[in-house]
Amino acid sequence: MDEVPGSVGTSASFALRLGQTIFSSASLLFMSLGVQFYSYTAFCYLVTIMGLNIPWSFTLALVDGYSVLVKCPLRQPGVLFIIVIGDWVLSTLTLAAASSTASVVDLLVHADGSYCPPKFCSRYQISAAMAFLSWFLSLASSLFNLWLLPAL
Length: 152
Description:
Helix content: over 70%
Mean pLDDT: 89
Order of helices and strands: HHHH
Number of strands: 0
Distance between the termini: 8 Å
Strand content: under 5%
Shape: elongated
Largest sheet: none
Structural class: mainly alpha
């Protein structure tokens, strides 16, 4: 069986998972630095999804790191199926959270009144950008694993 770069148990997958963890943590950090994020549902949604995404990505990064160290890639169809489903669900939720956050921030920035101080709005924009980067890496991981699934 050919090894798909980026599938579970490879060094590329470890790098993707580590990137997801870093970008999700950065998104959560920038959103949580603003004390006013709880005023908007989209921001609370982003915090919730990033709170789910961080342990998922970190756990799979640990699995990938262990698989790379012992040179034994994970190739069990049931486990891979659960990882693919989890990646797709979290990827969709992350895209929804990033999009809703970006649209609310854009609305706050371009509103007639000053609903958002520039200091907080820039943090929210950076948080949304980090969420989009996390989504991109999550989508790549799920596509690589989905590509490998029929070969098992």
